[in-house]
Amino acid sequence: MKFVIIGAGSAGVRAAETLRDTAPDASITLISGEPGEPYSRMAIPYILNGAIDEAGARQRQSHQHLAQLGIQYINIPATQVHAGLQGGQLDLADGTRLDYDRLLVATGSSPSMPPLAGTDLPGVVTCWTLEDARQIVTKLVPGARIVMLGAGFVAGVCMKSLVTSGVKLSVVAGRSGQILRSMMTPVGSRMLQRWLEGRGVDVITTGQTLRIEPGPRLVMDTRVIDADLIIVATGVQSNVSFLQGTGAEIRSGVVIDAHMRTSVPHIYAAGDVAQGRDFSTGEWVVHALQPTATEHGRCAALNMAGKDVAYRGSLSMNVLDTLGLISHTFGLWQGLPNGDNTEVVDEANFLYTRLCFDGDLLIGAITIGHSQHVGAIRGLIQSRRHLGDWKARLMQNPQLVMDAFVELGQG
Ligand SMILES: Cc1cc2nc3c(=O)[nH]c(=O)nc-3n(C[C@H](O)[C@H](O)[C@H](O)COP(=O)(O)OP(=O)(O)OC[C@H]3O[C@@H](n4cnc5c(N)ncnc54)[C@H](O)[C@@H]3O)c2cc1C
């Protein structure tokens, strides 16, 4: 059996290892579109602040890891899949053609540039690859003027590293005027914004970005910002061009079923590129989180190797360290249209707890500054434990969530 995996991120590497465990004699080829050993994008913020070097970003510490497992590792981008009924072929950018019996697409996504003039100018970068990190690090000297265009999750995870290196950081939120909108209510976003501003970050939530000029200089309708570096973090798009013509169904990512199969025979998908099952809603979404990518990779590999393993869905859970203020977002934190939600806000001490219910089930939550509740909240959501009388008590006082977890867990 020939297994080919396109993409050597968290999903691809875990899939390759799982395949080797499950199919000891199979041929396994893992393909990266980037040079070097497989690495974790999650490590990039720690490279920026010097906490780790590039070796520390490697997914597996040994250079020999893949070779020891008999996994062939190739650093050449895939350009086209030719899908057949019994398997197919894959073209690589150097003209090589590989045969596969089972193919896994684990190519993640790439930053999408906003429709602005000047995003290709010197001094304008994205923050997605090791190569991006190398470019950013050269600019992180005390006093440097860094503009972050975009205020979503990737911007959020990088802010601390930028500020602690002594730069002067400006963050430009999108049209919504709300930072971290994909993981925070307006109340939570404003609290995090106030925290950032109190630590010298210029958070810009009004005005429209018009273009980038040489310098680089960010031109908005309300102001002009001269910078030493502009980091564009405004969104991503799935890496799927090589699937063109195969008939694979693609929406916000490659559509898969509960066994990680795409709509094309013998082709599977996993990780950021795939629309997988969401634990909370049962819907098919792109989660773009490392734990989800790893779970996807494992589940896809088991099914590729002939096991029958349905994916139960992954819980969306974000953890963010915003210059020392830790926030968590779980599951359906927006709440349901007719569901009950409760919030406690302590603006003076930067504390926030929000719990969302479906009947007497906890289905989502946000915490800011309350890391001690994380295990309890996650446990209650994932176990779908009926809260019974505890629901009314938590509606009154969300801080009792640990007590509820302990009592219900032992009941
Ligand atoms: C700066 C940063 C910080 C992050 N921090 C966190 C965090 O704190 N917590 C968290 O849960 N998530 C975090 N993430 C998100 C997390 O990194 C992703 O969810 C995870 O990397 C997804 O893994 P993946 O294997 O699906 O894709 P990726 O890791 O993106 O890997 C994709 C692989 O496919 C390859 N590829 C792409 N196109 C081709 C092609 N045509 N041919 C061959 N190979 C190709 C790439 O080279 C790469 O090897 C962060 C992301 C970034 C950018």
Structure report:
The protein has helices at residues 10-22, 44-48, 65-68, 130-139, 153-164, 186-198, 290-304, 374-383, 390-396, 401-410, and strands at 2-6, 27-31, 71-74, 78-83, 88-92, 97-100, 102-105, 109-111, 124-126, 145-149, 168-172, 202-204, 209-213, 217-220, 224-226, 229-232, 236-238, 254-255, 267-269, 274-277, 284-285, 317-322, 325-331, 341-346, 351-358, 361-368. Helix 1 packs parallel to helix 7 (290-304) and helix 8 packs across helix 10. With 411 residues, it is an alpha/beta fold. The model has no long low-confidence stretch (mean pLDDT 95). The strands form seven sheets. It has a five-stranded parallel β-sheet with strand order 3-2-1-7-19. It has a five-stranded parallel β-sheet with strand order 9-16-10-11-12. The N and C termini lie far apart (49 Å). The chain folds into three domains: 2-110 and 236-304, FAD/NAD(P)-binding domain (3-Layer(bba) Sandwich); 124-232, FAD/NAD(P)-binding domain (3-Layer(bba) Sandwich); 324-410, FAD/NAD-linked reductase, C-terminal dimerisation domain (Enolase-like, domain 1), CATH 3.30.390.30. Helix content is 24%, strand content 28%. The longest helix is centred in the C-terminal third of the chain and has 15 residues, at 290-304. It binds flavin-adenine dinucleotide (FAD). Flavin-adenine dinucleotide (FAD) binds at residues 6-12, 31-34, 41-42, 44-45, 77-78, 106-108, 127-128, 154, 157-158, 239, 242, 271-272, 288-291, 293.
